[in-house]
Automatic annotation (TrEMBL):
Record-annotated membrane-spanning stretches: 49-67, 73-94, 106-128, 187-217, 238-258, 270-289, 321-341, 362-382, 388-407
Keywords attached to this entry: Membrane, Transmembrane, Transmembrane helix
InterPro entries in UniProt: MFS (IPR011701), MFS_trans_sf (IPR036259)
Pfam family, one: MFS_1
Biased composition (Pro residues): 19-31
SUPFAM superfamilies, per database record: MFS general substrate transporter
A GO molecular-function annotation: transmembrane transporter activity
Gene3D superfamilies recorded: MFS general substrate transporter like domains (1.20.1250.20)
Protein name listed in UniProt: Major Facilitator Superfamily protein
Region described as Disordered: 1-31
Amino acid sequence: MTTSGGTLVLAPRDREPGPSRPPGPSRPPGPYRRLFAVPGARAFTAGNLLARLPMGMFSVSAVIMIAGQRGSYALAGAVTATGLAATAIVAPWTARLVDRYGQARVAVPATALAVLGSLALVLCVRHGTPDWTLFAAYAATATTPNTGGMSRARWAHLLKDDAAARHTANSFEQAVDELCFMLGPVLAAWLCAGFFPEAGTLVGAGLLLTGVVLFAAQRSTEPPVSGGTAGRRSPLRTPGMVPMLAVFLATGAVFGAMEVVTLAFADGPAAGAVLALQAAGSCLAGLAYGRARRTARLRTCLAAMTVLMALPLLAAAGTGSLLAVAGGLLLAGMATAPTMVTGMTEIQRLTPEGQLNEGMTLAVTALLGGIAAGSAAGGWTVEHAGASHGYAIPVTAAALALALSLLPARTTKARLS
């Protein structure tokens, strides 16, 4: 304390502290930050992401590998369609075993069998075996477990009392699906073109097995098993489930046809990057949809998909420009994630307790069946009418999905809105 001209002056060290300023309101964490604050969520998501990346690689790798060696997109499309159809038959049984015995006990051996099928396909293509062996080898990959469904089942178990968080989790999972289908084709095309035609399938098989092993090792977040199945009804008998699966079947045809037609239209290393744009649009839309407080009706999403899927057709038929088609695919993809998130949420609502993995796998099975049909239809159209006209197939399939979504509202208890 000092004096200056009779005035008392406090030295800086003697000043009394003034009243503290109340801290400003802290910004609440976003929905995705809250999601990954759940213990164990980051660990199982990392393993599952690694396991799901090959899902966007296998069919593209098979088409490039088979078409390059045998000179026929029709054969390549038929082989991949056969594999997807086999998966559609086997996957629900695999999922039922997962619900009954647990993810870790079933997923790892099932994945090992699927990897052996992929290796068999590589050997058949490499050594020029008869065409029927390609169908048999690719069909052997049908035991691949539904890794996306298992991840969603974990979220449903961890967030069973928080509907808003489950919506965010479903949106995130769909964005992951699209991310894998965005990066997978690019990686597959790069591996097949830069190294050797079988490289995409081999790398995909290695990633799948590694990812499933890492995912299955996270036992703390694994949902409990449902026990015996005696006296329990199949999810197929739930009112509204079959109409929903029909919608997924038609939606799958959109994706299957789009992939094969785009591969034929681009016909080169750029095909993977062009396909990735559609997945990129869907991934961004999925993340944005996860932040939304209100969800859209399924029929609204399907209507938007039908309109947007016409853009690649107009670009291909009107300009013939690959750049224009790529832009159309980017916009078309923005309707995909909201459609899938809304549909999967409805499937979860319809599925009986303790059978969630089976219910979601039925949806994926219907989706794969549609992809198989779309792949075959797209390959046939490319062979007989050209790649530009092939883009009419996904538009038609999207319109069919929309029509199917409107019918059950009058005939079942399904809530398609």
